[in-house]
Amino acid sequence: MAKRNNRCLSEMKPGERFRIEKVAIPDAVLRRRLLDLGFVPGGEVEVGQRSPLGDPTAYYVCGTTIALRKEESNYIYGEKIGHD
Amino acid sequence: MINATYTIALMGNPNTGKSTLFNVLTGLRQHTGNWPGKTVTHAEGEFVYRGIAYRIVDLPGTYSLYSNSADEEVARDFLLFERPNITIVVVDATALERNLNLVLQVLEMTDRVIVAINLIDEAKKKGIRINTKKLATKLGVPVVPMSARNKEGIDELLKTVDAFVHGQLHPTPIAVPYSVEIEQSIAKLLPLVKEIVGDDYPARWVALRLLDGDTSLLSALNQQPPRLTKEEAPYACCGSVKSV
Amino acid sequence: MHVADRSNLFDRLMEEAQSLAPADTREQIVTAIFQTSAALCRETVTNAPKAAKDHTLQIDRIVTSRRWGFVIMLAMLAAVLYMTIAGANVLSESLAHLFGWVEQYLTLLFQAVHAPHWLYGLLVLGLYRGTAWVVSVMLPPMAIFFPVFALLENYGYLPRVAFNLDRLFKKAGAHGKQALTMAMGFGCNAAAVISTRIIESPRERTLAILTNSFVPCNGRWPTLILLSSLFMAAGYTGSWNTLVTAAVVVAMVLFGIIVTLTVSWVLSKTALRGIPTHYTLELPPYRRPKIAETVIRATLDKTWYVLKRAVTVAAPAGVITWVLGNVPIGDTTALSAFAGWLDPFAKTIGLDGYILMAFLLGLPANEIVLPVLLMGYLSAGALTEIDSLHSLKHIFLAHGWTWLTALNMMLFSLLHYPCGTTLVNIYKETKSTKWTFVAFALPTAIAVAVTFTTARLARWLGLV
């Protein structure tokens, strides 16, 4: 297991791509909601723009744009993918 | 008021144009807007096509039927207990992948489904091409491309509805293959589900929901009086409910 | 019991299921479904190369950017209001002319048939004028504001507003989607209260319900616009007048938002304590609305709505006000006695007895506040023929109005209790007398406190 790449989604910068390994949100309802929206293990996310006040951030997932606050993206773990 | 013979449920992710389609079909003026969640209550209307009256219900937009929210529960319970004759799942052609999730979930509950691929014009503009014939074959239910706001594809959709109620279509819905672990558990649970819940509900789907720990489903089933016998079932007239 | 049997069986079923279920069932299920969808898409969808980055991304890069996000929101609000005010000025003036012209003939008609004086008063001065005023003051702004707003809504701009403002709502302990329910409040607070259902957490939903009336609804826009144009922008003419009017109304809206955030913050630290719940916000792609269709539909809908309200609410209110204003009690009338009784308190908050009375009688619908006020003033003697909006200003001035009176009436209108329909909906949605009472009392207290402060301040600084 390549643990060294394990980072959370909130650390990613706009424009970077990310592959999800684990959605570890304690709140069960929200975890389910995120899974339904496409934040699934193995799924790919592209980081979009941050809100003018720094948070939330827009993410492109499954052809749609979903905004998440840091409180949520902090709990989504995975690895950065693609070229730098 | 027309005495509607068939009930159609409109389902779909939020903001896919369900309300627009609803307005086109019924001639009503349900408020529409480009933001998720604006249909907070479900709307009902009627229309007549080729001499047959339909009641159409615009359900709240949902991402899934896993009952994470009140909206999803409304949509799920409608499919389960009202048993619409046809469920039209409206999907956004520009985000097909996520939208198909809901289609797959609906197909686990009922096979009387038409997939309406809306916003096909937007998709074209973005360079997205969808092979709807192939998709229909894969899903095992009719797929109709359309643009509700340009009133394109509506006739095709209505023809499909008509064919459905006349028993000319024979859906063979795709089943999502789950992991070995889950499939084994489903197999073990199925006999018990059939024994306790009965044949009136989609057993494989109920088993899945139970494995997922969906207690709200059980309490909904529990509150529901035992189903009417086949002869009394409200939509069993015209022999179209199970005989297709 | 049969039911109990069923329950037991269901419990057994659930236990059985849970003993079979792997720990990460949900992940496994959802992942399987997603993999199936993805596989289906791979087989049936082809993307034109490089066409994927569409205009939605480019627009979002600007309208949600650090530099332009807030500037554009403000500019949009100002532009919408500017258009509304500029257009409404012209339309209101023509409508007022038209109604004045018709009134002459009505008067002739009543004289011709020798109708008794009280009947003429009741039907023409009460019923007709009340209705005519509601229509000419209320209809034009509504018939312009809502089509423009509907275009923005159908285009998909509202979720971006929610995205931009999210941080502020989070800081205030409120739900990010409250921005969406507030946008609905611009149309109608009563409808917006129902739209708070999109907020699932009861705590945040209550916050959104309690503060919704701080965004001006369609019954209050015209009051704000009219008073702002007559008093705040009085020193300017032409398009400068429109610009200043719009600026004042924008300031009012911003003040409403600040009050909303402040009240939400205080409540979330006290009576509705708790941390903001998690949520996700989808930013749908921009879609070019069907412009003609949207505009026509919104205009017709709003026109019909205003006319309906004029007949069902404003007309009866006009009659009642006229009766109260003309039934003598001793050497005065019921209306002026009531207004006189309210006057001392009203004066301390920079209003007068008639204004406060109009707000009280306007509880059923905010649209009738202004007509009731006018009826009150007119029945009490200063019977000017009204045929233009500027004659309105003379009526106000004749009753001792200053810019402070206008400002405080605007503030009171912005901040006071929600209308009757909204309160009924609040009760239906919260199913709580307590919260319904709070929804009434809290804004009222704030309205009184703010107007009291401005009145004190203005007098102390010698501005009035």
UniProtKB/TrEMBL annotation, chain A:
Keywords: Iron. InterPro entries: Fe-transptr_FeoA-like, FeoA, FeoA_core_dom, Transcriptional_repressor_C. The keyword Transmembrane does not apply. It comes from the Bacteria. This is Ferrous iron transport protein A, putative. The lineage of its organism: Bacteria, Bacillati, Bacillota, Bacilli, Bacillales. Transmembrane segments: none annotated. GO terms for molecular function: transition metal ion binding. It comes from Geobacillus thermodenitrificans (strain NG80-2). SMART domains: FeoA (SM00899). The keyword Lipid metabolism does not apply. Pfam families: FeoA (PF04023). Residues 7-80 form the Ferrous iron transporter FeoA-like domain.
UniProtKB/TrEMBL annotation, chain B:
It comes from the Bacteria. GO terms for molecular function: ferrous iron transmembrane transporter activity; GTP binding. Signal peptide: none annotated. One of its GO terms (cellular component) is plasma membrane. CDD domains: FeoB. It holds the Pfam family FeoB_N. Residues 5-167 form the FeoB-type G domain. The keyword Magnesium does not apply. The keyword Nucleotide-binding applies. Keywords: GTP-binding, Nucleotide-binding. PANTHER family: FE(2+) TRANSPORTER FEOB (PTHR43185:SF1), FERROUS IRON TRANSPORT PROTEIN B (PTHR43185). This is Ferrous iron transport protein.
Automatic annotation (TrEMBL), chain C:
Residues 249-298 form the Ferrous iron transport protein B C-terminal domain. The chain crosses the membrane at residues 68-85, 105-125, 132-152, 179-199, 219-237, 243-267, 354-383, 395-415, 435-458. InterPro entries: Fe2_transport_prot_B_C, FeoB_GTPase, Gate_dom. It comes from the Bacteria. The keyword Transmembrane applies. It holds the Pfam family FeoB_C. Residues 136-226, 308-431 form the Nucleoside transporter/FeoB GTPase Gate domain. Keywords: Membrane, Transmembrane, Transmembrane helix. PANTHER family: FERROUS IRON TRANSPORT PROTEIN B. This is Nucleoside recognition domain-containing protein. It comes from Geobacillus thermodenitrificans.
